[in-house]
Amino acid sequence: MSSRSVPHGGLRLDGHKSRPLEQPVLAVPPPRTCILALDQGSGEEAEAIVEPGTRVRVGTRVAAGRGTAADLHAPVSGTVTGATRLPTAAGEGRCLVIESDGRDEREPGVAPLDWQALDGPSLIERLAASGLAGLGGAAFPTASKLAMARAEAVELLVLNGAECEPWICCDDALMRERAAEVVLGARVMLAASGAAHGVIAVEDDKPEACAALEAALVVTGDARLELRVLPALFPLGAEGLLIAALTGREVPHDGLPPDVGVVCQNVGTAAAAARFVTEGLPAVTRIVTVTGGGVRRPANVEARLGTPVVELIAACGGYRTTPDRLIAGGALTGRTLASDDVPVTKGLNCVLAATAADLPARGPEMPCIRCGDCADVCPVQLLPQQLHRAARADDVAALARHGLAACIECGCCDYVCPSAIPLTARFRAARERQRLLGAERRRTEEARARFERHCERLAAQAEEERRAFEDARRRARGDGPPSGTG
Amino acid sequence: MSDPTLLPAVGVATALGVALGGALGWLAAHVRPDRRALVERIDALLPQTQCGQCRFPGCRPYAEAIAHGTADIDRCPPGGEATVRALAALLDRPPRPVDPDYGPTKPPLVAVIDEARCIGCALCLPACPVDAIVGAPRFMHTVIEAQCTGCELCLPPCPVDCIAMASPARAVRAASSAAPDR
Amino acid sequence: MDFPTAAAPHVVAGFTVPRVMLQVLLALAPVAAVQVWLYGPRPLVLLAAAGIVALACEALALRLRGRPAQAFLRDGSVLVTAALLALAVPPGLPWWLLALGTAVAVLLGKHAYGGLGQNPFNPAMVAYAVLLVSFPVEMTRWPAPGPGWDALTGATALDALRTGLREAWTIEEVRAGTEFGLVGAADAEWVNLAALAGGLYLLARRVIRWHIPVAMLAGLAVPAALANALDPGAHIGAAFHLASGATMLGAFFIATDPVSAAASSRGRLVYGAGIGTLTWIIRSWGSFPDGVAFAVLLMNLAVPLIDRWTVPRIHGHPRG
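Above: the input entities. Below: the structure tokens describing the complete assembly.
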């Protein structure tokens, strides 16, 4: 099966995915100290609703979702010892610390859900209570996304199993071992979103996963679902590009997928939804790829949220050698971790303990020679060369004209640049400056408007006083009726 | 040098030069640039603090003075180096440092009223050029931090010196959220 | 355990500027070899002279500009400029003239604008144009075709074409001359073949993209073929143009200089086509025998405008 529209640019990269997939998914024991970050990767913190000293069980709701943060539930049973700022994958954030009592008791009342008996909106409500969030990395509340999809009457559900970035293979492992869960999750999401049909998109470097999914689809026999295989191109797994490749429709740069009738979910999220309806347990675990030259036995592990990354590595045989960098995510878009004490969150899909051999050194930065390789690989058809020039000159107009806002920070341009220019980092910095500049401009405009109103108010006041004075003087002199003109 | 085309060629070139040069000179002298549009563009670059440190009663009068050439571009301490450079780029002049005669360059600050000392005299209310102080006689006064431009015009009128300038705590985050509150 | 932090992306492909330049020099080897076969060892002398002068000028310029000399000298870009110039000029050119030209290329054509990546004009072509205009006789004296490189010097085929047409000969009559070979100019057609081979190597190694060479050759061949079809007596055919002068060298090595070319793919098609067409126009009606150098310089002038008009549509932005 071929893609509808040929993606522009992109890179064909070495996957580095084979070693973790040589064995089945490992289960990591629950942590003794569970560090539950209130910001699970979406950028916003949930609000803790338990006080220190509270006893919790697995599945107890401990934080209320708000904005882009979903509800949080205790991944272990034990006692909440406090909420403090601790190192997280995002740098630092407020975390609920739960000391496990080792008993792993479940919250009573956790029961399977008869999802087929519920209508769409009710199903969404139950999913919201499950704390389900996007496991592809953005950790956006799934229920909100599905509700938006229902409101916009989307007709296509896309399950993103592309996993295009090198080193990450947690979704591959999931699709191989739990294809039935993925398919069930797809059906649940179809019911919740109201979409008419669904597509599971997988890249062609995952033949075992494709076979497993095909088999599961045959068993389920739901005619609304189909499997589509796409070329293994980075970054085809990016939502907007995936949708364009599958349907030929482009999500507007200032819009969202529901604008083109599509809602996109990660396969891991779908599997988590399936687990929720079959067991009733809220989202408290996820599969993480632990890999890189620094790990003795790379593997995909299933870990409770809040498990420190060092315990994941320990489950994989520990460090083989001290890694040069510890990266949360893939080698192209991942964030480096300052310490291995940071906890697993819903948005953490891979821990890459990279050695120097894994990360070829970047040479010294040279001037841009305008070779144009960056534009050839840019998947959103930008001209990184011109953006770079504009960013260096801080030319706001040129940055806007060349579409800085459309940059998905995939890193393809960096990868091919012969002058070793850190383009992606520059663009990130330029976008941050734009944001602050925009905020600054808004404040200035407000101040000007307020000043003008202030002056008008004073002028009106002065005019009123003048009129009152005139009237008073007229009355004092005993002249006729007060002047009505002003 | 007895080329018969030489003299006519020199004559034509000279005539063209005189004609074009004269035309450009006349245009430069008689066709004035749109002053009002220029004032707008200068005003758009000023920080709108309305503090008066430039010795003009507000940013707009200063913009007009720059446009008419009666004031230089280095008089705005709240705008700082960034504003001078933007003005220099707009007017095609070399940038220069902010003239310290017009005030020291400070980081962005907002006014904060010490509520324990405020006596509710309402003398600071009219002093604020952007009406960022809410209050009434004998009621507590407070500065709306998001609206304060840091012009410091409210400090002199206060009889009990209860207003101080402080670093805006939430200024950046507040500014970066979507709609301003009105 | 603590770890150092860094910004994404964390891997690179490992392409470097020196590697690109080395590939270009390798691809020029066939051209040099053919020139040696045709004209004897003199081209090697010229290459050496140009190379040494280029490196010296680059070092001087970097010193004057206060830049780190090591990093930039190692990148090899100035060697490519020198090689192109040495292979473009007649092999009989006095070496000190070539040295002068190389100095102009490096100092005036490259460093006066800010060094690597900043020159709006192709430095080799700047030098070629300066030499051609200042020393027209030496720059148009090519060895006559035939054995022995210092036997006779004479006009090139393009020269003969121009003078012949001016004297109202027909194309067929002009073509009978000794300056003409199988397809194009007598010796130049072999140089062009070698340049084509080198160019295809660069394409295969993805050092250059197809847009500029294809566009330039099309821009040259199409008007030539059309004119030849309409008036065969006054305009020579496309095959000749493709196999004479500096056509292939220009298409694959000179016009593809990334720094002075257009930025986007569409822009490069326009840029290449412009060079090809201008070359044909200059060859047909201009006073210089070969138009590649001036065509390149003229299109370099147009690059900012081309870039402004050929920004590709960004993904997610409205079409049309």
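Note for the figure: The beta strands of chain B are 110-113, 133-134, 142-143, 163-166.
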